User: Fold this.
Amino acid sequence: MVSGSSGNTVDSVRPNRPPQHPRYLWMDGEVVPWEQATVHASTLGWSTMGAVFEGIKAYWNDAEGELYGWQFAEHYARFAMSMRLQRMRPQFTPEQLVEASCELLRANECRGDTYVRPLAWHADATWFGHLEDSRTGIVITTAPFTSILGTGKAIRACVSSWTRVGDNQLSPRVKCISNYQNSRMALLEATLDGYDQPILLNSQGKVTEGPASCVFIVRDGMAITPSLTSGVLESITRTAILRLCREELGVPTQEREIDRTELYVADEVFYCGTGAEVTPVASVDHYSIGNGGVGPITERLERLFHQVVRGRYPGYAFWRTPIYAGRRDRRYDAAIPVTV
Ligand SMILES: Cc1ncc(COP(=O)(O)O)c(C=O)c1O
Assistant:
């Protein structure tokens, strides 16, 4: 059975079987049926130690019947940077991977908000050292997601007891799977303690980011976020938000160190990122932020961001890749039967 508002997910003919998956994924240069994308068990663990990934989104525009890839070029440029840091041999250019993602979205007939997730790994790894000669495996998958944009929900945050990894340890600058053990511990602790999300400090006690998102505060009408040398991912959404604040909202911005207590006295706090989109924060460590709802600048920004990503705003078309735009890849028209 084929179902789902976003993507041609293949459901099981067996009832009550929870996992759904798309019909196709892209692997090492080809769109392949889901079942054929396998790796050898001997590479498990070792290959993922240095594996790098991206989280990318495509937003559905119902009025236009179009799916817009959001900042695909920027994400694949960072993917290349992550691979370089891991000394992986690039087998595809960022431009080829952008094209691959578009083709995969069309192959899966994604007509709803969709995540695109590329992953690269040392395909011959059976140990952690001497991997420069290894082949690089690359897989791209798609999955539907539900956007929080427009929901008006503000979340409860805390400062984590876990310190953010530093650039000279596991550099947070790039998206390496291993870095996310640090994020994971912080997120687990926060949610077990009843919060929605943590904020991590660096070894100097300055604010860095969330486990998978950036942090902004607003003080006296200024949108402030930690600088890129504070121990944060070189976030793509962060750059877009800084630009939208300045160019569209007339909100001045600053990239600088942020003290922990500035979180508590800020007028507004929000997370942003591909996954987080723009997520307003209602409280940090039980200090209510503003009136405990969505702050006025956050609200304007969130509304604008929503319009831009969905292609409902005339500007910033260079950040969007129309996936269909009248194009069809004829070879996927006759759907390959998929057995699960
Ligand atoms: C640790 C971390 N920081 C920040 C972000 C936001 O980055 P981007 O805007 O590129 O999605 C992410 C996103 O995945 C992340 O994992």
User: Anything to note?
Assistant: The longest helix spans residues 72-85. The helical segments are 46-49, 72-85, 94-107, 180-192, 236-249, 260-265, 296-309.
